[in-house]
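Q: I have 79 residues here and want to know how they pack in 3D. Can you give me a structure?
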Amino acid sequence: MCYGAAMTKDQVKAILDKVLTWPEDEQERVARFVREIERRRGDDDITDDEWKLIAARAQRRELASDEEVEALFNRYRGA
């Protein structure tokens, strides 16, 4: 399965069917993740083109590292 390209509905369903075979605690982790995405989608003001750009950069790993993000947050936490 190729995760770089858009998935078909059948591919998504196949993955979700596989998740249902996992242990309950792992299913719950997936459910929490999906709920969080659903919650964020209500506030989503990012365009489809912007999401494509984000996905492309993430695939090339051109996003900030965890350390860079933490340093930025630490800089503004005390402000």
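Q: Anything worth noting?
A: Residues 46-79 form one domain. The chain has two domains: 7-45, 46-79.
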